[in-house]
Amino acid sequence: MAGSPVPQGKPTSQVCHPQSVPLPPEPEQLTTVRRILRWSLKVCPSARSRPLPLMKRILTCVLAGWTLAATPAPAARTPLQTTSRAVVLHYAKTVHAVYSDCLTASLALQKSIRAFLSAPSSDTLAASRACWKSARLIYVQSEVFRYYAGPVDDADGPEPLLNSWPLDELYIDAGEGGDGGIIANEKAYPDITPGLIGSLNLKEGEKNISCGWHAIEFLLWGQDKSSTGPGERPCTDYTTAPHAARRGQYLQACADLIVSQFEDLTQQWAPGKLGNYRAIFEEGYDQSVERILTGMIFLSGNELAGERLQVAWDTKEQEEEPSCFSDHTCEETIGDALGLQNIYRGTYLRPDGTSLTGPGLRDLALLIKPDLVPELDRKTEGTLAAARSIPAPFDQAILGDDDTPGRRAILKTLTAAEDQSALLRTLARALQIQIPEQAASDIAG
Asked: With CB atoms counted within 10 Å of each terminal CB, which end of the chain scores lower, N or C?
């Protein structure tokens, strides 16, 4: 009843009303979202009818921004890392430039051979020979990009199809003691195509070379039987001689195959191409410095000093001369030494006269082991100077006593190249890089 006394000892019954509990401050991020949403609806009134998609876009952008803001900045690169990266990026740029020039030169050779075959004459044959020489001088400067199982000489690389030697000419064409080779064997090989000659390369013998630079060289010059000059294949080998038409088809197929190989190599080193070899090479610049050094060390020591010069110096055999049909080995030895200098100094003079210049391996040496640089400079320049002193033709320079000018020049060149290779190994150790004794391309192959 109203007015009845409240029993003692018991709490007075009260109606509970929710009280205003202070809320925590609105997170700054939510405030930001609200402000962006209000601004978006103001500038785009039509979004009011479909606010959810708009909200989703706003949240996505804001969250992305917060994620970036929350991501710690990468640690600053050390001077060694900065220089290594610069050297690797310029090296990749140089590789692409050289292979692009190889492609341009091989296209010119392909066109010249096509013109020769359409109108065989001494003049058109001479023009094709000149194109071959020009293209070779560019190519040999690319050999420093080998030996680390890159695109040119990994397990699937085109190097064996491009540059294998020494070549058994009887495997391709007619000659003393042969049966006419692939060209004469129309029953077994009715259609001569780039695919066919590629499939026959190095089949059943390391001298069974069916394609590449030296196959074209042999088809343009023929066997070198002269002590004073190169081979003298007549243009009538492509007009009235037996199997003239098939010989022409073979020559054209060789030229076509080289073009396709340089197209692939150029694409592998093209800039800004997702997933190609260059993208991987530039990303892992620590490992790529090792690859650069490996290519230089093996070209200088194992290949140039060893396979190219020491073997020929020891045996005095003409067949141990790489470009024996054209007598072009002296010029190519200079080209190999020049390729080494290009990467060491970060320079490359292109056929059009323009120069590509940037950080080279020398910059790394200056940073890590500056006391080694004067000697590296001398050996790099000394190898090139010694190569230029070898008198042509090479197959005559290797003959005679050891004190003849030719043999002294060859020995001086191979010694300088060996010393250059040893100094580069010293630089590798200073960079804490272990260079294997066997090239990765040899293991891959």
From this structure: N
